[in-house]
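Subject: mismatched residue count in predicted assembly?

I count 266 residues in my input, but I want to confirm that the predicted structure covers every chain. Input:
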Amino acid sequence: MSGSIQEPVVEDCAFDVFARACPSRGTLEHVTGRWGGLALGALYEGSLRFNELRRRVDGVSEKMLSQTLQALERDGLVHREAQPVNPPRVDYELTDLGRKVAERLLALIHCVEGAMDEVLTARARYDETRGAR
Amino acid sequence: MSGSIQEPVVEDCAFDVFARACPSRGTLEHVTGRWGGLALGALYEGSLRFNELRRRVDGVSEKMLSQTLQALERDGLVHREAQPVNPPRVDYELTDLGRKVAERLLALIHCVEGAMDEVLTARARYDETRGAR
DNA sequence: CAGAATCCGACCCGATACTG
DNA sequence: CAGTATCGGGTCGGATTCTG
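Triage response: the counts match. Full output below for your records.
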């Protein structure tokens, strides 16, 4: 044991999002990013092909969907299954890890959706009191 | 009453994030945005002053923190209490709604933090197979 | 201390065109 | 169908300066 002089204490929480340099921030941003969350949410209902996903996530461009899926696949949250047929067919589905994350994410999404009345009311009040600016 | 001609049917799911124009997307982005989530997470532990928050959320600039807090206050997730003293003292704390949202958010954050080993492994594998690219 | 205002570069992201 | 490549505007966001 070695009473080392003074444990610099890297902290036991090795992956603390609050720390600037932590890799978990990056993953969290993939998950909560503009399209990442919606993609995970859509895939939670089941496997989807590229364009099915594109239609489900209203407003996403091909480029962004592609980019988003690659990030999620790289992080091990989404599995990509490409069949070498013609026309090409590629299916996306959540991994076990992806499903766990998606559950938490959906809980958050539903919480926010369900609170929108309250949010809208709060906004109106805020804009009224200091909205005139 | 008033059989108005045809209810435009705003849909029963009045606030569906998957719909492009839904206001819940905006709020969700405030919550899950780069700094919004971290601010909510930090405030979950208790009321904080501006600069305390700034130190807790490592890497955020004054500008972004200020901007973030305003958005969250407007959405009714954060309460801002300014005391007219000198030097000025302003405390931020979660509202009831904010606390509910923060709970879901922290569940997600901890889930991601806890999965980072797995994520990092997945990344390494991904980069190896097609990383040469 | 708690911000507001301004400047300015980086990159996000959508539209378009092209490939297999 | 399932993407990639390229371009360009808009926004994000950091550094700095200023106020009360």
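The beta strands of chain B are 48-49, 78-83, 89-94. Marking this ticket as 'not a bug'.
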